[in-house]
Amino acid sequence: MNNNIKVTMMGLGYIGLPTAALIASKGIQVRGVDVQPSVVDTINNGKIHIVEPDLDGIVKHDVERGYLKASTTVEQADVFLIAVPTPFKGNNFEPDLKYVESATRMIIPHLEEGNLFIIESTSPVGTTEKMAELIFTERPELKGNIYLAYCPERVLPGNVIYELKNNDRAIGGIDDASTQKACDFYRLFVTGELHPTNARTAEMTKLVENASRDVQIAFANELSMICDEAGIDVWELINLANKHPRVNILQPGTGVGGHCIAVAPWFIVSEFKEKAKMIRTAREINNYKTEWVIEKIKNKALEFELNEGRKPVIACFGLAFKPNIDDLRESPALYVVEALVKQGFNILAVEPHASNANTRARQVTIEEALEQMDLGFKLVGHRQFNSLPDFILNFV
Ligand SMILES: NC(=O)c1ccc[n+]([C@@H]2O[C@H](COP(=O)([O-])OP(=O)(O)OC[C@H]3O[C@@H](n4cnc5c(N)ncnc54)[C@H](O)[C@@H]3O)[C@@H](O)[C@H]2O)c1
To answer: What pLDDT was estimated at residue 283?
Structure first.
């Protein structure tokens, strides 16, 4: 495969846009498709609608050189990639594949013999086969004549451009020819190692990576709550335990958020209900940790009220789901803030990465918070919070 191909990226969000931009930067014609016209307009103006270091310059350059064009409609291409959301639905945390399915349906009329169709969205095991079935039901003449593969994304928000290029990738086709074709494609813009497998294993690889992190974070979060009761500083404890040459405990926090670690493990639990006991428990511990943080803050507020005879002004530092990004999806910090506001507490929220966050708390700067607050709590480890005064209680 060479650069003389046309690529279509379905979904221009945190994953789709940087991937489309990186591919276009290699001199490949990329059409980015999104259902939100405002996203399409922003990109066609050479601008971006998300926060990701270095992405703005690359998109601007790609658009100016004519290699990246955004649209709300699909056209013929050689390679179709899907990076649309895969949330869960209902009370049982079942994966909701409606966006992947609608993106696939948008592509189907434009598919031609020899095309490569790749899903990058985090997906439950069997999704690529399901989409293959959908395609071949609508276009039976394509069976055996197109290539279909799954390739999960494992980038770290805030470092996406580097990791897209340099991370290893698991690439699984629905048959060997599809795997090979997909590897040839990723070789055009990925310098990390490409690991060929089948579609089901590639799908599960992503889910297991996220579940593994979730289980390890749950261990740290459980320790933090035990230590609180035991009167032990959990940070010192973990630091000491990690001096053991074969121990590596992660850091506790406000909970677990984002669209990956807080979501993907449920895709395993919902399908393997009896077997996935540890994965389910880890999810529950990490969710419980967030409730625990809320209780801690409420207790400190009550203590203040008893001593001072008035309700405190409480500053919460951080709303994003992890340090140094603007992404608020499934954010435990945002959940804490909203729960406290709902319960009538006077909350100031500080989020340097999203000055207009969708919160009912009053958003202020670090300086304003320090000036106005009675109690302060650090919920996210943003670098801007590194030198906060010691009396601010640290949950991260
Ligand atoms: N954000 C991450 O760090 C990350 C990391 C690894 C994997 N993932 C996975 O990648 C996938 C995409 O995540 P994201 O963070 O980029 O989501 P996102 O919400 O930032 O972007 C998705 C985009 O898809 C668009 N969209 C929805 N339906 C569409 C359709 N039918 N056709 C075209 N566009 C459509 C939306 O308008 C949105 O702009 C998810 O499955 C997610 O779990 C995300």
So the answer is: 96
Output the pLDDT for position 158.
83
Closest by CA position to 23, among listed 37, 10, 8: 8
Listed in sequence order, the residues at least 6 apart from 354 whose beta carbon sits closer than 8 Å to its beta carbon are 51, 319, 320, 326, 328
Residue 172 phi/psi, 5-degree rounding, is -125, 120
Q: Is 18 in the pocket of ligand 1 (CB under 6 A)?
A: no
Both structure tokens of 58: 């690359």
Q: Is 95 in the pocket of ligand 1 (CB under 6 A)?
A: no
Q: Any idea which fold 6-192 has?
A: Rossmann fold (3.40.50)
Tokens of 151: 């390739």
The CATH class of the 232-394 domain is alpha beta
- Residue 222 burial (C-beta neighbours within 10 Å; 0-12, 13-18, 19+): middle
User: Per-residue pLDDT for 313 more than 80?
Assistant: yes
Nearest CA to ligand 1 atom 1: 14
- Measured in Å, residue 11 CA sits from the centre of ligand 1 at 6
Report DSSP state, residue 18: H
Q: Is the CB of 36 within 6 Å of ligand 1?
A: yes
Confidence at residue 89, expressed as pLDDT on a 0 to 100 scale: 87
Res. 91: pLDDT tops 80: no
pLDDT, mean over the chain: 96
- As beta bridge partners, residue 40 has none
pLDDT above 90 for 93: no
CB neighbour burial string for 301-320, b if at least 16 within 10 angstroms, e if fewer: beebeeeeeeebbbbbbbbb
Instruction: Give pLDDT tens digits for 51-69.
Output: 888 999 999 999 999 999 9
Active-site annotation, residues? 206, 260
Q: Where in the chain is the domain with CATH 3.40.50.720?
A: 6-192, 232-394
